[in-house]
Design brief:
The complex is a heterodimer of chains A (265) and B (172). With 265 residues, chain A is of the alpha+beta class. Chain A has helices spanning 3-8, 10-14, 20-32, 34-53, 61-71, 80-84, 88-134, 146-152, 251-261; strands spanning 141-142, 173-181, 184-193, 196-204, 216-218, 221-228, 231-238, 241-247. Chain B is an all-alpha fold and 172 residues long. In chain B, 45% of the residues are buried. The chains are: A alpha+beta (265), B mainly alpha (172).
Chain lengths: 265, 172
């Protein structure tokens, strides 16, 4: 295959849609062609960008209710808008169907969506943590204490990160930087436990599907505690801000830090 | 409610998302989705069981958009600005991002910027990119947009190249 042909097939290659023979040809080409391998990396990054950051525009609940009512009646000779003007009885029947059917239809969808979202949030937190660790300058501001780190974020974010834990002997605050969580900027507070780096990401909470099941009470918040690729992740929401704490320290120690960050009143 | 209706309603979010990116606003997107379901309801018997219902609904939505909304708006710019001139594989289209700095910039593009960049593309480009993201196969995308599978492949490649070019303007 030529470089042009390989690049034309990159999406199929990445999605596993090529036949084995073609897949192997593309892979062999990528192994020997730095330019196409780079193009492969860029394509993957573009896909990741679109999948994680492109805003989604789901239908409103009102539209879903209208459609559920519309589809609850058999197709007839009248156009759909005529059925809206039908008698009160079908409307009431439709409303009943909506009340019963819509929650059932969407319950499982929402539940599975929430589970996916929980995993996706943990995955994003781990990615951000790894991105920070692999950065040449992981800390954009070295810590001389919380009162040096927090003001540094001023003008760099469109929100003020609410963090009061200044670090202590167990979990010293090392510094901070600006990162990204999904489609938004995040304040990153870098703590440590012995030699283990710990990232606390603080970001705007709006527009994210927050886990609502299997939450653990930690300090003043109900948090989602999960593990992803060997990292422990604790995610919670407080007011308008979201928090993601991620590290390879064990879950118990991470919970201890989370409790200090968000102490019970 | 029929089984088909129940299944069809499960795709309302995906349909609305595409409609929103086609029309550019929520009001028209809702109208388009509602009209799509109305047409699907009338054409329910034409659906072949065992085939991809989601792709069938996407096809109705896009045809509805092309036949009514676009004509009604009589807006030539709906077609976007990237329709021609970004040949896949050309140096301009594919090589600008090949440096580390550019790749790093791409990673920092935020949501609003991606949406803005996508909205500058043609309707056709937006459609193939979004359908690809929805997980439709090239055969299904070809069915939705009414062209050959090979054409979908080249259109998708061109569209993504055009998007990368647009994102260059937003990357900081």
């Amino acid at each position: 295959m030529t470089c042009d042909e390989v690049r034309l097939h990159l999406r199929d290659y990445q999605e596993g849609r090529l036949r084995l023979e073609s897949h192997n040809v593309v892979r062999a080409h990528l192994d020997g062609c730095a330019s196409c391998a780079r193009a492969d990396t860029v394509e993957q990054e573009l896909t990741r960008l679109l999948e994680h950051r492109l805003p989604q525009h789901p239908a409103s609940l009102a539209l879903k209710r209208r459609l559920a009512a519309q589809w609850s009646q058999p197709a007839g000779r009248h156009p759909w808008w005529a059925r809206w003007r039908a008698s009160l009885a079908p409307a009431l029947a439709a409303a009943a169907v909506v009340l019963v059917a819509v929650p059932v239809v969407y319950y499982e969808r929402v539940a599975s969506s929430a589970a996916r979202e929980q995993g996706a949030m943990a995955d994003e937190a781990v990615n951000d943590h790894l991105r920070l660790l692999s950065s040449q300058r992981p800390l954009e501001v070295e810590s001389g204490g919380l009162h040096q780190v927090k003001p540094w974020f001023g003008g760099r974010l469109d929100f003020a990160p609410v963090v009061t834990f200044e670090g202590d002997a167990d979990f010293p605050l090392k510094g901070g930087s600006v990162g990204y969580f999904r489609d938004r900027k995040a304040a990153v507070f870098a703590y440590a436990r012995r030699l283990h780096p710990i990232s606390l990401l603080v970001f705007r909470a709006d527009g994210l599907a927050w886990p609502s099941r299997n939450l653990t009470r930690i300090g003043a918040v109900d948090a989602s505690v999960t593990s992803e690729r060997g990292f422990n992740v604790i995610v919670w929401r407080r007011g308008e801000l979201g928090y993601a704490l991620v590290s390879d320290v064990d879950a118990g120690e991470l919970k201890t830090l989370a409790a200090r960050i968000t102490p019970a009143p | 409610m029929s089984g088909l209706a129940t299944q069809a309603l499960a795709y309302v979010d995906a349909l609305h998302n595409l409609a929103r990116y086609l029309t550019g606003n929520d009001t028209d997107a809702e109208d388009l989705v509602q009209e799509t379901y109305a047409r699907a309801l009338r054409a329910e018997r034409q659906f072949t069981p065992g085939t991809n219902l989601k792709a069938w609904l996407f096809r109705i939505l896009r045809n509805t958009f092309l036949s009514s909304y676009r004509r009604r708006r009589n807006d030539p710019t709906v077609g976007g600005l990237d329709t021609v001139g970004t040949e896949a594989g050309s140096p301009v289209a594919s090589d600008w991002l090949l440096g580390d700095v550019e790749l790093d910039r791409l990673r920092k593009v935020v949501a609003d910027e991606i949406e803005s960049a996508l909205m500058t593309l043609s309707e056709e480009s937006r459609t193939v990119i979004l359908l690809d993201l929805e997980g439709l196969t090239e055969v299904e995308v070809a069915d939705v947009v009414g062209c050959a599978v090979g054409t979908v492949k080249s259109r998708l490649s061109r569209a993504r190249a055009a998007l990368r070019l647009k994102l260059k303007d937003y990357a900081r």
